[in-house]
Amino acid sequence: MEAKDRQTENFGVWLSRQLRRRGMTQAELAEALGITRAGVSAWITGRAEPREEKKRAIAEVLGTDEATVHLRTADAPSERPVVWYHRPAHADGGREFGNAAAFAFDADVSVLAREATQNSLDERHLESDPVRVRYVLHELSGEHLRNFLAALRWEELLPHYEAAAAQEQKVGRTIAEGLRELRETDTLLLLRVDDYNASGLTGPEYADGRFAAVVRRQLDSHKTKRHASGSYGLGKVTLWATSRLGLVLVNSTLSEPHEGRTERRVIGRLDLPWREVNGEPFAGPAWLGEEDTEPEYEGVARSWWADEATVDRLHLTRAGSDPGTSFLVVGAHDAAGDAETVQEMHEKLVRSLAENFWAAMTHGDSSAALLDASVTTLRNGQVLIKEERVDPHTYEPARSRALKAYLDGRTVDRLAGLDQVALTHVPLTVPPLRGEKGAATTHRAVLLVTPADDKDGKPNHLVCMRGSRMTISARRVPDLPLGTNPFQAVLLAGRATGSVTDGADLAEAFLRASEPPEHNDWTKTEELASRYARGARQRILDFRRDMNIAVRQLVARREEKSRGGPAVLRELLRLDGGGSPSRRADGHPTVRNVDGELTASGAWRVQVEVKLPRREDPWLMTPVAKFDVRSGGKPTVRWSELIAGENCRVENGHLRFEPGVRTASFSGVTDIGSHPVAAGMARLIIDLQKARGETA
């Protein structure tokens, strides 16, 4: 079948819609064509198709050209108006004072960037090419603002906004603030999210499909790919939550035709609380679209195929004909309050894209990236901040290096150089579904470790991801060996490993079920407990434990550990204990090694390694820090912070070491208020003393 044929709508379906749009009956068309009504009915039902001369006559009756009737990739012109349709109030008196789903996330532009980009990745069309996501901030004022509001039919919306703003509840107060800012500043901020090489909002107007899931429904994920990141259907709500006016406009280019067309499928959705306007109550949401003529949806606003001039006035023009969707958030704001200007919002969007999708934007020598992302800022159509393409190697240099080495097959078993990447595997046991028989499946997740780069803000962290390589969690690795060189670790699970096996897909589904709506952890969830056999939560805990163990094994030094650190600091650190450590080692815990640094505030931050004699009971010890000043005694300084390490717990300022262990560790920060002199002017002595009441 030719590509053109695949985009040609069935003649009967097309003709039936044209008649409804014009308010014309089959009998009236038959009379205009000089044929029987049965003949028109045969065309409508698909039992027959008119001859060429009849198609020319139909084109004349419909007021269009012959090509439109032949190709059927567009509707004939009609007088159907584009209107705002406000859902009537519930007949039973029920009222919703806002969309509850919108409160699942903060209305923060960084959250919007994470959720919207994840949805775009889940809908990648051609697997050989990346999804291109473009964020555009556009500040309108003056004549540019008035032209946009006119295209939006603002005067029709204003009574609904004022009624909603008058209500004393959260959504009403947000809307009131948006209206106040619009009146007082005469400016309006638009945030457009464009994706290309994505599926677009395909599917029918009201029945199951991508379009209805996004525009008409709540909590409908409608993910078509087993390894999709989203699963709750909540991410799309961040678009509306980021609008102070609760308004988002949509322009979609479809990857498969609907009604014979693919370009400029346009609709608007407004989320307001229950309200009463001119004595008539309304339920909440409203839609901007063409009045529907389907009998069961008559008068409802449906999407329409807009012309180029209309999408331009609505600031929805897309660059090219690649499939995907443009969402325009009207009255965008950052609820967190730390991005008040467009410049700050621009920077926050870039940071969020880099932090959450650096891995999706990383490519190998012979493998394409999954994502290409950029941010641009405009003011009244003029470039204020030029397009900034997010480069993962700029924002996450060490982690990007690690992933690229894996994609290129350049990993090693053990780190020996500053630019090397070590690889090992971490097993994930996937239990069977609840009620199903069969053995558990073991999936081999990939763990990568590389030395941290100087530009890395938080070393010694493990970042986990699956599917389309969005960051799920980033946490510091606990209980690291003392003296560990700074590193970055990346764990790839499921499809993120590059595997397309059934085992990878099972791991995808299992991990997705363990994620909360924010998709920011692998933990116990209701879905995990309800879908999988008993013990599923323990499998997640085992996975998290094993990945930390694997990191510690990769970063452990094989060579003899250097003592102390930089020479200038080593000279200021001493071990003590009221006697020679060697004489006390057989019967008393002793400090074996101290690494330390001076903080910017002038405190000592130390990591202490302890040697313990074998004992069946735990040890309860008090860590003591002293200053060895040039004259007088050795004054004790207080701790501002004590942190337990390996085989150790902090209890009321004491350290409890586990029974039977031979080594332990802890770290601490001294209280500068207790320093008798500046830290750099005295040596620091670390001692371990028995806690009061503790017996040997």
Assign a percent range to the helix content. Answer: 25-40%
Oligomer: single chain
Low-confidence stretches: 1-6, 226-233, 558-564, 575-585
Compute the number of strand runs: 27
Distance between the termini: 88 Å
Largest sheet: 12 strands, mixed
List descriptors.
six-stranded mixed sheet; elongated; 28% helix; alpha+beta; 696 residues; twelve-stranded mixed sheet; disordered N terminus
Question: How would you characterize this protein structure?
Answer:
- This protein is of the alpha+beta class.
- It is built from 21 helices and 27 strands.
- The strands form four sheets. Strands 1, 2, 3, 4, 5, 6, 7, 8, 9, 10, 11 and 12 form a twelve-stranded mixed beta sheet that branches.
- Strand 24 and strand 25 form a beta hairpin.
- Helix 2 packs across helix 4, helix 3 crosses helix 4 and helix 9 crosses helix 10.
- The chain is elongated and about 115 Å long.
Give the arrangement of secondary structure elements.
Elements: H1 3-6, H2 11-22, H3 26-33, H4 37-45, H5 52-62, H6 66-71, E1 82-88, H7 109-122, E2 131-141, H8 142-151, H9 154-165, H10 170-185, E3 187-196, H11 210-215, H12 237-241, E4 243-253, E5 265-270, E6 275-277, E7 280-291, E8 301-302, E9 304-305, H13 308-313, E10 324-332, H14 342-357, E11 371-379, E12 382-389, H15 392-395, H16 397-407, E13 422-430, E14 441-451, E15 461-466, E16 470-476, E17 487-492, H17 502-513, H18 526-531, H19 536-555, H20 567-570, E18 573-575, H21 581-584, E19 590-598, E20 604-611, E21 619-628, E22 636-637, E23 639-644, E24 648-651, E25 654-657, E26 663-670, E27 683-690
Parallel strand pairs: 2-11, 15-17, 18-27
Antiparallel strand pairs: 1-7, 2-3, 3-10, 4-5, 4-10, 5-7, 5-9, 6-7, 7-8, 11-12, 13-14, 14-17, 15-16, 19-20, 20-26, 21-22, 21-25, 21-27, 23-26, 24-25
Helix pairs in contact: 2-4, 3-4, 7-14, 9-10
